[in-house]
Design brief:
Length: 265
């Protein structure tokens, strides 16, 4: 499904961008970005099974951010940064500027828990993001956000809060690369897991088979096996990794539990 959409994007860019002036170079840049997005997706889906667990970094302290990044670099090549504006959710976090100023070896995506997510996309691309995930509930114009992300060469995912019905997001699923189901109410580390979200993932999988899905919030060693069996492709974990004494060891235990649960399906 995703490969077909990206091929269609390449054709669209090739046919609609003129050769004249610097526009031809812009066309080539857009096509390169599309190809990179497809490569990254294929690597995540069909590559090392460790990629099923994605470390999620949430902090409002630039020094803690750097510590978390350096820790993550020892055990993964892909992380998610949580960006919060204090409006869509009560908390605030590090900003695009902090990410841009931090040299890192990681590939990364941004989970935007912000109002007007379209205002963040250009700066995130410049900072090095490969993918952005924005909330369905955060904008009245989700198609505009998706369109702008595509123009910038970003992969784009759609996040939904626990109370948002699947029916609300179905008209958008063929336009995004993934859907992220929040299993907590967003904005804070260490919140209580909402198990009913696993039923939503199963239902969504029956409606949109083959669509990439993720789950984020309240996941730890005691429940990750059940979460893995619910069918999400990617499991985002924050405090159960970074608030532990040995983040790398915690990450590897979580990965092992996911792999064991997957084999039992």
């Amino acid at each position: 499904m995703l490969g077909k959409r990206l091929a269609q994007e390449i054709v669209r860019v090739w046919l609609t961008t003129p050769f004249a002036g610097g526009r031809h170079q812009r066309r080539l840049e857009q096509i390169k970005a599309i190809e990179t997005r497809y490569y990254l997706h294929q690597r995540k889906v069909y590559g090392d099974k460790l990629n099923q667990v994605v470390p999620a970094i949430l902090t409002d302290d630039p020094k803690v951010l750097e510590t978390m990044v350096r820790q993550a670099e020892t055990f993964t090549n892909w992380v998610q940064f949580d960006i919060m504006d204090g409006k869509f959710v009560p908390s605030q976090s590090i900003t695009c500027e902090h990410l841009a100023n931090l040299s890192m070896k990681l590939n990364w995506e941004a989970h935007l828990m912000v109002q007007n997510p379209e205002n963040y996309l250009e700066n995130l691309r410049r900072a090095g993001a490969q993918k952005v995930i924005f909330h369905y509930e955060a904008t009245s114009s989700p198609l505009e956000v998706i369109s702008l992300a595509r123009e910038l060469g970003l992969m784009v995912g759609l996040a939904t809060n626990p109370d948002t019905p699947i029916s609300a997001i179905l008209p958008l699923t063929d336009k995004v690369d993934s859907v992220l189901f929040l299993s907590v109410h967003p904005g804070f580390y260490s919140q209580k897991f909402i198990p009913e979200v696993m039923d939503k993932i199963r239902e969504f999988g029956s409606i949109c088979p083959g669509m990439e899905t993720g789950i984020d919030g309240g996941i730890k060693e005691s429940n990750i096996a059940r979460v893995a069996q619910a069918g999400a492709d990617f499991i985002y974990i924050g405090s159960a990794i970074f608030l532990q004494e040995q983040p790398e060891e915690s990450y590897r235990r979580l990965v092992a539990l996911v792999q064991k649960a997957s084999l039992s399906l």
